[in-house]
What we know:
The protein is mainly α and 485 residues long. It is built from 21 helices and no strands.
Amino acid sequence: xxxxxxxxxxxxxxxxxxxxxxxxxxxxxxxxxxxxxxxxxxxxxxxxxxxxxxxxxxxxxxxxxxxxxxxxxxxxxxxxxxxxxxxxxxxxxxxxxxxxxxxxxxxxxxxxxxxxxxxxxxxxxxxxxxxxxxxxxxxxxxxxxxxxxxxxxxxxxxxxxxxxxxxxxxxxxxxxxxxxxxxxxxxxxxxxxxxxxxxxxxxxxxxxxxxxxxxxxxxxxxxxxxxxxxxxxxxxxxxxxxxxxxxxxxxxxxxxxxxxxxxxxxxxxxxxxxxxxxxxxxxxxxxxxxxxxxxxxxxxxxxxxxxxxxxxxxxxxxxxxxxxxxxxxxxxxxxxxxxxxxxxxxxxxxxxxxxxxxxxxxxxxxxxxxxxxxxxxxxxxxxxxxxxxxxxxxxxxxxxxxxxxxxxxxxxxxxxxxxxxxxxxxxxxxxxxxxxxxxxxxxxxxxxxxxxxxxxxxxxxxxxxxxxxxxxxxxxxxxxxxxxx
Length: 485
């Protein structure tokens, strides 16, 4: 786990930096510099683009990692990489043409509930293309076991850009329409920089030789478009559907709550970047012993780290909502439900990497189709009844069912579970911490209260994890960086 821990640590730092900047943007700058209506519009545009992203990438960001290590000669590898660069264009070009000739129909459809969306269809398409090709170039770097710069671009770059643009709005240099245009430019620029970095690591040599596994590659890429869309769909289809059922201002309230809860997934996002290529190698080498070890250790490490973040969010959420505009407090229930769903996500470890890179990737497609139908139905039922809370309920149920199905399937086919007895110990620690600290408040200003309470919770949790010695990886890090005896 050496390279995993090393790059995951660096990725975690950059990801938290990005989330910290994003938190300032989401909780304070957007809520004070942009009206709720336009904040909701921006959330809708970027969420819709994110839903389209796997289609625009044609699944290449997963295909690159799965098949890269199977090519043993330079000519075959270069031909494969050439195909990976060209393949997304078979989707990008038709989508762009449909957008051009069907603009009026598409814009009328998306703006039925909120007319403000009508003029921003091209923003969605351009953002989706930029996001898609960014993931392709990031995957290119991952195959060379280089994830740190790409993770910085994925998590930090665009958030810094948006922060600067928000201040430009505040200072009067940009109006809100120019601001939205500039956001799309930031995503395009991010893609271009990632492309340059990926090509510096490994310069493309265009080869159009016949690829022996061509049919398998195309089949995998075609199927993985849907399968790879599932995780994105779960967290973004709700925002899209909210825009069809309720006033777009409430999408902004929901987006803030989702952002708060999504901080829990930061370690998972960071570790996932390096787990994907390593898992693919173990599968290609049929090294089941190493695969099981990676499965359980990644699950436990992520559960411990994300468990602490879960506690810091849930136990401080009431105080946090006292320092942002009052109307955003409607998202309190959303935070609780999505936080639980995110915590369950971490228990899966590298489960997704196993499924996406094994011969059973087709089952992810099946699960994805079923989940897509389920989550759409759940949102149609619960959003009209409960508003943004209904979207959270639908997302929680869908994630619980989806994750449970994936754990069951991996256990059935590979005879291994991500859980160990140490996982149970960590789960008990989290439950006890919630019971002890939820009603514990210091009589200070909310910001001071959050700081003191977080320090107390962190010290107690870290000390308990160290004393129980539930994870050799985590204990080793604590011994190295903290003065714990």
